[in-house]
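Ex. 9. Protein: Lycopene cyclase.
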Amino acid sequence: MERVDVAIVGAGAAGLSLAHRLDRMLPGRSVVMVETPETGLRPPERTWCFWEKAAGEWDAAVNHRWHALSVVGPDGTAWRSHLHPLVYKMVRSRDFEALVRSGLRKTRTLRWTVTDIVDGPDGAVLRLRGAEGAERELAAGLVFDSRPLPELPADGVTLLQHFRGWFVRTDRPRFDASAAVLMDLRVPQPERGVAFGYVLPFDARTALVEYTEFTRAVLDDEGYDAALRDYTGRLLELGVFTVTGTEQGVIPMTSARLPARVGRRVFRIGAAGGATRPATGYTFSGVQRQTRQIAAALAAGRLPVRCPAHRGRHLFMDAVLLRGLDDGVVDGAEFFATLFRNNSLPRLLRFLDGKTTPLEEVAIGTRTPVASMSAALWAQIRAARHRGGSMRR
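Predicted structure tokens for Lycopene cyclase:
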């Protein structure tokens, strides 16, 4: 049986990012990335957006940048803000994959499907199936598994960020390419949760236009297309346009605890390991923080047992918001409109990246709908106490 020092399962953002870092920081170790050859098990092409200061390590894969963002409230009031010193960036998954793979010097890729991972005291064994049904095993000192969880834990509130987007080209100039629309809250709202439009303009005639919901259940195809027709027609008034491509996805937003360490030698990374920010669904930046810490720990000769993508207090605040949206005590559209109306956008983005101080976070909290958020806070505290009591019994 072949043995390697590190096996990375999956070649999405998390697997590729960790492979990139280990390839550079662990020169004497053997690293293998195991990627399924079955196209039906691989995620479709998608875009990842994030914000950072002007220069970044993935700039060669960045497809577009915006130096300003806007938010549109339910009544049509728009707020626009420059992001300096931050920049909002978009990466296409194919470009990111090509960049990372071209830079790997020692890391090998095996195209096999992982059917099981057997943990052990000194390593783990990956059971693999080939494209033609052949089977083999691979032993690894450490395993980092980026595959989506088959189901989420039931000990928290889980909403789904689900969306469909159209890449459109209009017959005449319709877009302001200088700013991306982060949330357009004029769309019809669900009874619980929130819905919004999202526009990434590439130039005056081309853009990615998405319809997004934070709710418990996804829509069917007709539901997404009807929402996009309404948004592009009644609200954006795009006129005649051509759909040149589509994008669709479902991102779990959960307050449930997602432990990164699931065995003595097995760890989860990416969304399955808690990299997604629960209140927003943004994952790419969390993946970078998480994989950076893992690589640093391994380079120092330590097991990566404490590599959180997000701070505990931020996860608690996110849990309160998810609880309020799910219980219906927080009006999602009004909450986000108030949040963006009353707070500096660069500060909010720093908060979502976990870079604000507790004092700044108190200031942000007092500029949201305080009464409904207080009700959500007490509901979350009661739920936590009940869960704790049930566990003790």
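Check your answer against this statement. Residues 158-254 form a domain with the Alpha-Beta Plaits fold (CATH 3.30.70).
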